[in-house]
Amino acid sequence: MILPLGEDLLGAPDESVKARLNSVTDLERMVLKAPKAASWQEILDTP
Predict the structure, then answer these.
(1) Rounded to whole angstroms, what are the CA distances from 8 to 3, 35, 47?
(2) Are 46 and 29 in contact (CB under 8 A)?
(3) End-to-end CA distance of the chain
(4) What pLDDT shows up at residue 38?
(5) Long-range contact list for 9-14, CB < 8 A, 24+ apart?
(6) What pLDDT score was predicted for residue 22?
(7) Could you report the per-residue pLDDT of 3-45, keeping only the tens digit for each?
């Protein structure tokens, strides 16, 4: 869910980002942050 949204906004993530995304259990917080994020790291660091 977050991958297509992030790719549209930020481009393709590297493998380390993909691995972290696969381990996340609360994607809702990331989905809400993605439209305003300037980088994949900003999405991953969302509390």
Answers:
(1) 9, 10, 22
(2) yes
(3) 18
(4) 92
(5) 9/34, 9/35, 9/37, 10/37, 10/39, 10/40, 10/43, 13/40, 14/40
(6) 83
(7) 888 899 899 999 999 898 888 877 888 888 889 899 999 888 8
